[in-house]
Amino acid sequence: MGGGVMLFVPDSSLFFPMAALIDLDASVLIQWGIFLFTTICLNYLVFRPMLRVEELRESRTAGARQEAADKTEEAENRIAEYEENIRKARRSGADSYQTIREDATGKGSEIEKAARARANQAIADAMPGLQESYESSRTTLKGTAQQMSDSILEKILSPPSAGGKS
What we know:
The chain is mainly alpha-helical and 166 residues long. The chain has one domain (28-151). It is 80% helix and 0% strand. It has one helix at residues 26-157.
């Protein structure tokens, strides 16, 4: 190759602006019409049914939540009523226990009084016989004691016998 010089020539498209991307002509109106038609069709065919389904789901969910809240409240009321009945039954049982205990204590006291009265009566009934037995035993004992004392005195006061010991 020869010793030639190469020339650089820039692309002419860089210096000259290109044509506009969107031309404003009658086709814009047609595009707007297509856009509006598509929007209206989507609104009736997709968006509104989807919103109805969403509202229905929300109403059913809210209804189910309300029903659950009502049933929870009813269950809590039943539990409170049950607990109140249990408290009443316990109070009633304690009162009955106390009444039965008081009755038993009263009956025990009555039985004790009756037993004391019978014992006192038995003592009173046995007293004359015991007194008589006491007096008779005392008289017998006095006589026996007198005889023993006389015998002891006689042995102490009598002279010893010549033949041996007594």
